[in-house]
Design a protein that fits this description.
259 residues, alpha/beta, TIM Barrel, five-stranded parallel beta sheet, 16% strand, globular
């Protein structure tokens, strides 16, 4: 059974690689969809959309609280991540405990995790501790999937400083922000920013080369953005001549996107 499982994984990876190669050859107006973890309530539906639309994305992983009081990188979700890895998506770190940078201080940074045992507590971390938080997501990803993670990361909230970015680079990590038009708005209030408005804005403003940002479930949004907007957005961008690529094909990040 173990040998059969390894054979299946190898075949799936080969198929994904061929799909990626074909997509790269035809992709003249690329956009790069990235998905950060969240409460994971919409994750199965998101996976269905991506598979149906034959779109590969880049995921950024943190161990965040889920709707059933578990966490996004726990054993329940491990098979989901393993399947996404076999499909050929790219994966980066979002810090293990979804740790927000707050300020630079002597010798390090003031940070505030929004998950894990120190949730909500302002702490002072040195560069080594921050790097360990990035690596912890990578270690967990490899334990779940059997594959190494890329050397890309996204700071929660996109909050960074030159000092933090330099510390991350020193331990091998490259930060990935998002484009202004690529902020897809799933973190905004659904009463003031309904899904139809967010879809219209994205289809109007997104340009070739943009890095797009959404999440696998946002607690505060009453009318979920995904998958309601996700599939119309993908289809609409394709109709406009855009194609979807992962950060392994991005001119800035392709080197760091390799495990």
């Amino acid at each position: 059974m173990l040998r059969a499982s390894r054979l299946f994984t190898a075949v799936a990876l080969l198929a994904a690689s061929l799909i990626c190669s074909q997509a790269r050859a035809a992709c003249e107006k690329p956009v790069y969809l990235t998905l950060d973890t969240g409460h994971m309530g919409v994750a199965p539906l998101v996976a269905d959309v991506l598979k149906r639309q034959q779109v590969l994305v880049t995921f950024f992983l943190a161990n965040e609280k889920t709707l059933n009081d578990g966490s996004s990188l726990d054993d329940e979700w491990a098979p989901w991540w393993k399947t996404r890895a076999a499909e050929g998506h790219v994966f980066g770190s979002h810090t293990y405990d979804h740790v927000y940078w707050v300020a630079d201080v002597a010798g390090g940074f003031r940070v505030k995790p929004s998950a894990g045992p120190a949730n909500g507590q302002v702490q002072t971390w040195g560069p080594a501790q921050y790097c360990a938080g990035l690596q912890r997501s990578a270690d967990r990803f490899q334990a779940m999937t059997g594959q190494p993670m890329s050397h890309l990361f996204r700071a929660p909230g996109g909050k960074t400083s030159p000092k933090l970015l330099a510390a991350a680079r020193a331990c091998g990590w490259t930060h990935v922000p998002w484009s202004a038009a690529g902020f897809l708005g799933d973190e905004l209030s659904s009463s003031s920013h309904p899904n139809a408005e967010l879809l219209q804005r994205a289809l109007r403003d997104i340009r070739s080369g943009d890095i797009l940002l959404a999440h696998l479930g946002i607690w505060s949004r009453q009318d979920p953005w995904a998958p309601a907007v996700l599939e119309p957005l993908i289809a609409g961008l394709k109709e406009r001549g855009f194609c979807f690529a992962t950060l392994r094909d991005h001119p800035t990040y392709r080197g760091s996107a390799k495990p």
